[in-house]
Amino acid sequence: MIAVIQRVLESSVTIDNREYSRTGRGFLVYLGVKKGDSEQNSSKLAQKVSDLRIFEDENGLMNLGIKEVKGEILVISQFTLCTDNGKSGNRPSFIFAEEPEKAVVLYEHFVSRLKENYEPSKIKTGVFAARMYINSVNDGPVTIIMEK
Hints:
Blueprint: E1 2-15, E2 18-23, E3 26-32, H1 39-51, E4 53-56, E5 62-65, E6 72-77, H2 100-117, E7 123-125, E8 133-147
Parallel strand pairs: 3-6, 6-7
Antiparallel strand pairs: 1-2, 1-3, 1-8, 4-5
Helix pairs in contact: 1-2
């Protein structure tokens, strides 16, 4: 399981020309589920995201987490994070991405664990496997990649 976490001032997802979710300050998380991932991977990664300290304190140091700044989290499924980067050529292979029927279960598990670790009302999502348009205003920019 891989997550790309961006610190944002705001983010939103649009599906079928309608805004589906919107957040203010917080995290935009792109989540890729790889073959062989488990609920244990999902739980550990959700805990790491919940505890991630990438917001600046009064001294300008990244010491504050999402809970301290009362931020929001937008989680977007993104199988394209699961590429085979070892091959030559210019067309990516997604052979490491989990089958959709298994991946959706782990995606939803990740979201449910975030809601257990933090305030459920502050966790927003897109729609698994939908064609989504993401808008964000990155803060910093600060981008962290985590893998479990």
